[in-house]
Write a structure and sequence with these properties.
By secondary structure, the protein is an alpha/beta fold. The chain has one domain: Alpha/Beta hydrolase fold, catalytic domain (Rossmann fold, 3-Layer(aba) Sandwich). Helix content is 42%, strand content 16%. It has 14 helices and nine strands. Strands 1-9-8-7-6-4-5-3-2 form a nine-stranded mixed β-sheet, with helices on both faces. Helix 12 links the parallel strand 8 and strand 9. Helix 3 packs across helix 14, helix 4 crosses helix 5 and helix 8 crosses helix 9. The longest helix has 19 residues. The protein starts with a strand and ends with a helix. The N terminus is likely disordered.
Length: 370
């Protein structure tokens, strides 16, 4: 497994408010809500010049039809073309946010597909943050694209950002025809270990001492395990009380501790017990690229990059890259990694360094005919 070390940062000074730090615990599976990023007019023009856009519908679960945009590159030659399917991060996201990357892929002769999440935009069904349902939707997108004569069904590559990066490894592990996987700021662990690592790293990175973080994380993990096991009310109440005490020991007010508990003691977090991201990575033999931002407060590179390297250690075609000066949204110029700073740094997934790295890697993997 390859690993780019020259840009790995040992940054440990990210400061976040206590509320933000706790809500960042969600990011191990649900990850941070991805701010909507509309394409700039010139980006829309470039996408139009480099491609032929086609509206598509994708049947998924009963009552769910996804609305998407398939862009076919303006290429010379004949025959079906390779395809990249992009999978969005957490939140009610429609199409958009991958424009800089899609420009590069289309210029290389690679088709792209993006779609509105279920219940969002023109997609039918009910919007819900259930990773299992979202994975079924992404799997349905792969199947629909393979039915098209313009697409080479054996050269489909999956790219997921944030929550999407937690979803695509499992899809590829279940489908040996997937040609490769790219995760951008996606988590890399399994089950409750993923929860514990995420909570620990986010609290430590936000300035809390290891001596008080460790017992809090242990108690919170026991609480989530008890919820998943449907423990009795007395056990749940005891663990909830102990978790609140743990937050107070880390400097939270009683009100803040109650809010922090609510952020982790909910059904979205319980899904983490069923997460098998590292296991999926271990099963992959296709090329894999994982990209992290060194200042990411939601999916910290500190814990996730080593977990990724460990999971992919047996795959000689895997690469893990950590970029300095980037946060969760992979833009250049980040100094703190905060959401407020992110709003000042341009389009999501817009770093030229990142676009070149991912573009070169995808081109080498899919080998499009120009």
């Amino acid at each position: 497994m390859g690993c780019t070390r020259g840009e790995v940062s040992e940054e440990r000074g990210v400061k976040m408010g206590k509320r933000t730090a706790v809500f960042a615990v969600l990011c191990a599976m649900t990850t941070a809500p991805t701010p909507a990023t509309a394409a700039l007019p010139f980006e829309q023009d470039i996408l139009a010049v480099r491609s032929v856009a086609r509206e598509v519908t994708i049947p998924s679960d009963p009552g769910v039809t996804l609305a998407g945009t398939l862009r076919l590159p303006q290429v010379h030659g004949h025959g079906p073309v390779p395809l990249v399917i992009v999978v969005q991060g957490h939140g009610p996201n429609g199409r958009g946010g991958f424009d800089r990357l899609m420009q590069r892929w289309l210029a290389d002769g690679i088709a792209t597909l993006e779609y509105d999440k279920r219940g969002v935009g023109r997609s039918t069904g009910t919007y819900v943050e259930d990773n299992r349902k979202l994975a079924r939707d992404a799997t349905a997108a792969v199947a629909a694209m393979r039915r098209l004569p313009q697409i080479d069904g054996d050269r489909i590559l999956m790219v997921g950002h944030s929550q999407g990066g937690a979803i695509v490894p499992g899809i590829a592990a279940a489908d040996p025809r997937i040609a490769g996987v790219v995760t951008l700021a996606g988590p890399a662990g399994d089950g409750l270990d993923l929860f514990a690592t995420s909570m620990h790293d986010n609290l430590v990175l936000s300035g809390h001492p290891e001596a008080t973080v460790a017992p809090l994380v242990a108690t919170a993990t026991q609480l989530i395990a008890a919820r998943v096991a449907h423990a009795d009310d007395a056990t749940i109440d005891r663990l909830r009380t102990a978790t609140i005490r743990g937050f107070v020991a880390n400097g939270f007010s009683r009100e803040g501790a109650a809010g922090a508990l609510a952020a982790i003691d909910n059904p979205e977090i319980y899904q983490i017990a069923d997460a098998h991201i590292a296991t999926a990575f271990k099963a992959l033999h296709v090329p894999v690229l994982q990209v992290f931002g060194a200042l990411d407060p939601f999916v910290p590179a500190r814990g996730n990059a080593p977990a990724a390297r460990a999971a992919l250690a047996g795959n000689p075609r895997a690469q893990v890259v950590v970029f300095d000066g980037m946060s969760h949204w992979l833009k250049d110029g980040a100094k703190t990694g905060s959401e407020a700073e992110n709003a000042t740094l341009g389009p999501n997934l817009g770093s030229p360094r990142m676009v070149k790295l991912v573009g070169d890697w995808v081109e080498a993997t899919l080998k499009p005919i120009r």
